[in-house]
Each structure stands twice: as structure tokens, then as C-alpha cells.
Specification:
With 247 residues, this protein is of the alpha/beta class. It is 30% helix and 22% strand. It has one domain (3-240): Rossmann fold. It has 6 helices and 11 strands. Helix 4 links the parallel strand 6 (134-139) and strand 7 (162-166).
Length: 247
């Protein structure tokens, strides 16, 4: 077989294989937006490096408060800045904390489902806050991470105070930008049945009716054994800014 024919065979296998991967992939596929330089540390927050590589920020609660609001952000290149803005909007005196995933907003490393889940657990452990004082919030890409942390704490017999999920899907696929990305399955981030079944805390699921990126999912509500709260006229990104959102 000539080199030209070998090349044609290889290309055909790549296309067919890519099509099969896409058929087995989640319906929701997005490019990672990693690689941006670090945004400024938000005013009023203390920044530290989790495991020497991940940017993390926190602000303690007011004197009369003991609870903490911990945010797991979506696919945002400036996760520290946008995370702090969201937390300040809904914090109401609680302690506030979030971190930038591997490759995002000045954090080192390459993201993957296993790595980000492990990082999320270590982040909460590093806060040194009693789990009963933690209120976890996961948005979009951060939802599977928040669910996993809540599940892990529940398995240890120390569940968090509350878990809130915003604009999430049962699973989504994240891909590094490349010419081959349309042919690849990508990294699948899933809210697994194993994690959902382990939860021992109240769960709220909130979604905007106009979210076309990740449409509201009754199947996710069923998996989490909770009701789906819909915010009329709210799309994917604006759910973090709506006045009706109260946590």
C-alpha cells in the first residue's frame, strides 16, 4: 500500500473514530478557557497558593457569623475575580472562599476531572472550617466539583451545611482548543449517581429558563433528589448576577 493510501486510511479512521467518540460524548461540549494571566487579587480578600500551584482567596466572616460560603466557579478565564464578585453579592456576612482551577487565572497545571475533584476536596480541607459551617455553591463546570466535595464530606460523616447547584448539567465535556477538538470526546465532568447518593445535606438546584448553554435538567433534579427552581428570563451567565438569587 502506498504512503498516500496509508494516509487516506489513517484519515478515514480518525474521522470515523471521532464520530463514534462524539456519539458517546455528552451533548454539552465547551473549550477550556485556560492560559489567561492572573487577575488582580480582589480587595478585602487574602490570597494564598493551594498546594503551591493554585490561586485561592478567602475572607473571614463578620464577628457575629460562623458560616462560610465556598464557591466552585464555571469555565471563566478570570475565576478569582468573578468568583469574588459573586461571593460578595450573596455573602451577607459569611466567610467567603474560592479558588482558580488548574490552568485558569494564573493557577499552574492542566485541568482534568480527576485532578479538579481532588483539588476541590483539598481546597475545602485547607480552609480549616468545620464542615457543618460550610455552604457549598457550584456553578456550571464547578457543579460536579461541589457535589463531589459534599459527597466526600458526607461519606466521612461530616456533611456540609448546604449544597446549592446553579446552571448545571448531568455531564458536560471540556476540550483543549485544537483543530482536532471536534473529533475528540474531551474531559467529561459528571455529577455521578455515586456522589449524588452519598449526599447527606440539603440540596438546592437553581436554573434560568433562558439558559441555552446548559438547559434546565429535570433528570439532574431527579439524580440529586431535589426540586428544580427556575428563574424566569435568566440565561447561563446572568444567573450569578440576578437579584432574585438568595443563598
Amino acid at each position: 500500500m502506498t504512503a498516500t493510501r496509508w494516509g487516506l486510511v489513517a484519515f478515514t479512521l480518525l474521522v470515523v473514530g471521532g464520530a463514534m467518540f462524539r456519539l458517546s460524548s455528552p451533548a454539552h461540549r465547551f473549550p477550556y478557557v485556560t492560559g489567561a494571566p492572573a487577575s488582580a487579587t480582589p480587595a478585602g480578600f487574602t490570597e494564598w497558593k493551594l498546594d503551591g500551584r493554585l490561586r485561592a482567596i478567602k475572607r473571614p466572616p463578620v464577628e457575629s457569623q460562623t458560616r462560610w460560603l465556598v464557591f466552585f466557579n464555571g469555565n471563566d478565564e478570570h475565576q478569582v475575580q468573578s468568583g469574588a464578585a459573586f461571593l460578595e453579592r450573596v455573602g451577607n456576612g459569611r466567610g467567603l472562599a474560592t479558588f482558580a482551577y488548574r490552568g485558569y487565572d494564573g493557577s499552574d497545571g492542566v485541568p482534568s476531572p480527576d485532578a479538579l475533584r481532588a483539588d476541590a476536596v483539598r481546597f475545602v480541607e485547607a480552609l480549616g472550617v468545620a464542615p457543618a459551617e460550610l455552604e457549598l455553591v457550584g456553578f456550571s463546570l464547578g457543579a460536579p466539583l461541589a457535589v463531589h466535595v459534599a459527597a466526600e464530606l458526607s461519606r466521612r460523616g461530616t456533611p456540609p451545611r448546604k449544597l446549592t447547584i446553579l446552571a448545571a448539567a448531568l455531564e458536560l465535556s471540556m476540550l483543549m482548543p485544537s483543530r482536532l477538538a471536534p473529533l475528540l470526546r474531551g474531559d467529561v465532568y459528571a455529577i455521578t449517581a455515586d456522589d449524588a447518593d452519598a449526599l447527606q445535606c440539603p440540596v438546592a438546584l437553581i436554573h434560568g429558563t433562558d439558559d441555552v448553554a446548559l438547559p434546565p435538567s429535570r433528570a439532574l433534579a431527579d439524580r440529586l433528589k431535589t426540586t428544580l427552581t427556575l428563574l424566569n428570563g435568566v440565561d447561563h451567565g446572568s444567573i450569578l448576577r440576578v437579584a432574585e438569587l438568595s443563598l
